[in-house]
Amino acid sequence: MTMNNSTSNRRIRIFDTTLRDGEQAPGASLYPEEKIRIARQLARMGVDTIEPGFPISSPGDFQAVQHISRELQGIEICGFARAVREDIDAAVQATQDAAFRRIHMFLSSSDIHLDFQLRKSRQQVVEMARSMVAYAKRFVDRVEFSPMDATRTGDEFLFEVLEAVIAEGATILNIPDTVGYALPEEYGAMFRRVRQSVRGGDTVEYSAHCHNDLGLAVANSLAAIAAGVTHVEVTVNGVGERAGNCSLEELVMAIETRKATMGVETGIVTGEVYNTSKMVSRIMGFPIAYNKPIVGRNAFQHEAGIHQDGLLKNRSTYEIMDPDKLGIPRSMIILGKHSGRHALKHRIGQFGVQLNAEELESVYTRFKEKADELKVVTDDQLMGLVGATVDGPSEPFTLTHVQAVSSSDRSRMASVAVRDNRSGIERVYSGTGEGPIEAIVNGLKQAVPMEVEFVDLELHSLAMGAKATGEAEVTIAVNGETFKNAGMDQDVLVAVAKAYMSACNQAARRFHTDSSVAVPGEPEASKHAAARESEQMRARV
Ligand code: KIV
Ligand code: ZN
């Protein structure tokens, strides 16, 4: 790679196959309505092509591809097919109403697949590829051909197949690393050889499709880009068969962060990356690993004292990307046993409390004991420690009681008690919902004089066994700004209530909410937001 100072970067087209290859991940299957919701978000995020499914595989997939083709007219839609007429017919029909479309046809090319799976000779395979590309070309201009298991095929036969499909009019060659076997140098070199040696190789577009069995899918895709490839097939959160596919967010942010060096760019709206990741994780029921690059919970959090100190002085000391630009609610400093006095003082200062040196020392000593015991010290716990040192409670609202009642019908009830620390008044509120969490949140909403939108909830168990502590992380939005906070308790419902209250406290501090306007009963202004959120919560709770 060379340093590029020009402003005309080569445009890399992002082909999203979350709804086809991603959905092939065990346990990830999606209903058509879910595919449609995700496809809308993919379009909002600016992907160039969506592969929404495998139309021949089920009526639901056909319907989803057809609906998405009709609705998303600004984007290319791809119909997936084996190299057989029935598949091609279904893909052609399902994408009929798309404004822009392509057919993506695949056929195995490695001897392992030919011998053990297809039980066909090389000659038969070349003939199938040739005749089916010719067939697809009767209906569609843009035909993508994928020789499956290409990286274990060997040049001689790979070139023969590719020459045959180019001769019949294939316009895009997608050369997949189906089993995640290639190394980056090998994968890039393969594209160079194909372009140079295959007859017609300089007349078509190239696409990379990598699986992550060795954790190399992103590296291999970047190597393909360096070798001149212009389309990359990716999935959100890297979901897909086995260890998954090349992760959209990792590839896009590698390009975005290093575009000056690579000389390439994508059309992705990076501010939508986090939302999309969350949406796919929630709808597929696939949690995101804490340490997943870009979108994992720890991706922008810092615990080591020296890192926290650096960040407080300048973000770029330990961060190469700005989470704000990715739409990621920032809670960059995690207070734990590695945190230093500087970070502690800063966080306490965010609550409007200034400690002198002696007070800080006293809080710091007790903070360290707490951190040894709990690993992570939440804002609530920290302010509890500060409360013993500084006069008066510093949080606008304190949750004093939570009770949720289960029942066999679909309606749950909860009662919560909240003290408004500025007026000193404690009130009890009740809420209902389809699940206990919705009921608790609907109760708590009445206690806080702000229009609070419930954005996201993550639940984790912090240890194994029946005595495990549950941790809830709640993200809310107030006045277009997001706030995220955590709560812990052996009762997971109480953990959610604590996390929600802490996030509301953060927002209240940010906007200096006047507690005197708090009234019992659901605030009128928040009713429409509540309707929107209850749908989100039901999906999770
Ligand atoms: O991994 C693969 O080979 C595929 C193709 C069929 C493109 O998903
Ligand atoms: Zn694949």
From TrEMBL:
Q: Does the keyword Kinase apply?
A: no
So, what pathway does this thing act in? Amino-acid biosynthesis; L-leucine biosynthesis; L-leucine from 3-methyl-2-oxobutanoate: step 1/4
EC class name: transferase
The catalytic activity of this protein is classed by the Enzyme Commission as 2.3.3.13
Q: Which GO terms describe its molecular function?
A: 2-isopropylmalate synthase activity; metal ion binding
Q: Which UniProt keywords apply?
A: Amino-acid biosynthesis, Branched-chain amino acid biosynthesis, Leucine biosynthesis, Manganese, Metal-binding, Transferase
Which PROSITE patterns does UniProt cross-reference here? AIPM_HOMOCIT_SYNTH_1 (PS00815), PYR_CT (PS50991)
Pfam families named in the record: HCS_D2, HMGL-like, LeuA_dimer
Q: Family assignment?
A: Belongs to the alpha-IPM synthase/homocitrate synthase family. LeuA type 1 subfamily.
The name under which this protein is listed is: 2-isopropylmalate synthase
Q: Which organism is it from?
A: Paenibacillus athensensis
